[in-house]
Amino acid sequence: MAEQLLGKRVAVLDKGWIELIDLMPHPASGISGDLAIINAARVSFLGESKGPQRDKRLLFYLLRNRHTSPFEMVEFKFRVRAPLVTWWQWVRHRTWNMNAQSGRYTPFQERDFYLPDFWRKQSSDNKQASEGLLAQQADADLRQKLLAHYQEGFRLYSEALAAGVSREMARLFLPGFSVYYTWVCKIDAHNLMHFLRLRMAEDAQYEIRVYAKAIYEHFFSAALPWTAQAFQEYILNAD
Ligand SMILES: Cc1cc2nc3c(=O)[nH]c(=O)nc-3n(C[C@H](O)[C@H](O)[C@H](O)COP(=O)(O)OP(=O)(O)OC[C@H]3O[C@@H](n4cnc5c(N)ncnc54)[C@H](O)[C@@H]3O)c2cc1C
Fold first, then answer.
1. How many angstroms separate the alpha carbon of residue 216 from the centre of ligand 1?
2. Order of strands across the sheet with 9-12?
3. Of 149, 170, 214, 238, which has the fewest CB atoms closer than 10 Å, so is most exposed?
4. Candidate of 68, 71, 91, 93 to mutate for ligand 1, largest count of ligand atoms within 8 Å of Cβ
5. Which of 54, 66, 111, 199 is catalytic?
6. pLDDT digits (tens, 9 = 90+) for 118-164
7. What span, in angstroms and rounded, lies between the C-alpha atoms of 224 and 62?
8. Which of 94, 98, 206 has most ligand 1 atoms within 8 Å of its beta carbon, as the pocket-test mutant?
9. Domain spans of the chain, in order of start
10. CATH value of 2-99+179-236 in 1.10.10.10, 3.30.1360.170, 2.10.10.70, 3.30.70.1230
11. Is pLDDT above 90 for 52?
């Protein structure tokens, strides 16, 4: 199962994706992520696996009682392509290690902008949140306007480049929140659960929630089935 996860890419939003590029323990090691956690915990008394039933019970005990360090023995490395609005929320989580594409090296492409499928309305009781969708006609009109805005921004960007302006300055013409960015990032399972708890929650912005859910459903649950079960039971359900 874990072998098939390496290199797997999941589409997110209109042009984004997330891909698992590395995993520790490596699937070729023959040790599952759940077992790596259990073995790390058992080093306290210099032991290892005691069979599936006792191993699973121990793992649930660890998570229930917030014995967090064994969960740091598993690491995920992703390549992510997402709009900048997602990036700015993601980088607030200091426990990720990250390297990002640079607009100083690589020119942006015209198709590099996020075009939402629908417009969410402002929430009436939560200043940060959205709720419900705009009526279809207004939705289509705004979509056209956004597209025109992207085209104009990109035209000005290209014009500035053609006039000899540096890439680092020409990008000031681009619509900042919507441009797609690519980055590589790594995190351990303990800190990933913290990220997932905050960013899969209903009050997280949709544009990061879909990435967090993709990580949880396609990679985390598949690489760590017991941990995912315990995380669901003791952390997500408790919320
Ligand atoms: C719905 C939502 C709305 C938000 N709105 C805003 C907003 O309006 N404005 C805003 O600025 N931010 C906002 N944030 C970001 C939020 O304040 C946190 O910065 C972000 O969620 C990262 O959380 P964290 O610090 O727990 O995670 P991480 O940075 O991943 O850290 C994980 C944990 O490690 C520990 N830790 C890491 N670094 C340190 C350190 N240097 N010192 C002490 N402990 C550390 C802490 O226990 C921390 O909880 C929002 C987040 C969410 C989920």
1. 19
2. 9-12, 16-24, 75-83, 180-188, 97-100
3. 238
4. 93
5. 199
6. 898 888 887 777 888 887 777 888 999 999 999 999 999 999 999 99
7. 14
8. 94
9. 2-99+179-236, 115-173
10. 3.30.1360.170
11. no
